[in-house]
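Data deposition worksheet. Section B asks for the primary sequence of the deposited chain exactly as it was used as input, without tags or linkers unless they were present during the calculation. Section C holds the resulting structure in token form. Section D is free text for depositor observations; keep each observation to a single sentence. Incomplete worksheets are returned to the depositor.
Section A, Depositor: J.P.
Section B:
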Amino acid sequence: MMGRTHAATGWCAGLAVAPVVGITTLAQAVVFAATTAGFALLPDLDHPGARASKLLGPVTGALSWLLRKASGGLYALTKGPRDEDKTGTHRHLSHTVLFAAAVGAGTAAGTAAGGPWAVAAVVVFGLLLAEDALGDWVLPVAGVAVVWWVIENSPDVLGRLDEVSGWLGVAVAIGCVVHCLGDALTESGCPFLFPVPIAGETWYELRPPAFLRFSTGTAVENKVLLPLFVVLGVLLIPGVWAVILDMVNVVLGSGADQEA
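Section C:
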């Protein structure tokens, strides 16, 4: 999948999961979803040309290099008898549920230990990733949500930031998992069940039947899937359905009055 599609699916997943993890306000849901959208790009840090790898210049570039080295080394050590003879860098270690769980748990632990500024750093990094993929509109929308959230939690803003470290870990993990599921729909598939051995492969690329797969960047993704997730991403925003139903009731009520 392309970066913007990954981010759009991450946004949808974040809005869908927000109520499950105890997020109750619109401002919190928007920040959570924007963070999930951003971290839905994180697994592609294993590619030097990816948005995540270029975001912070030499900093994320160095992280990308380290991830590729780690992924390639792990692939060489663990590949099964039927795994392909490849470098094992892109779409390997970072494209697994194990990676998603580890990064999510590390985020939760790191932000809990690092305090409110660590929480803020994770949120800002996720927002920058989302903005890079989805466009400049993300920052002002998320910025308004952050300001709204600050007003709701004033005067103990920093204290309340500490409370969200747990759901930040969830946001990061969900973003990574959604990325893997998206890549699993493409022709290349995704080995996200590593290290579970399947058919003699430790890095078995899961994918749907051939007629359900698509190639990255084709019309299926750009003209069908991406618009679908954009619409879904709007409909999932808390309160949007209520507004739509009210508008429908107004229209139907006006029609009934005219008939009468």
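Section D:
The chain has a mean pLDDT of 87.
The radius of gyration is 20 Å.
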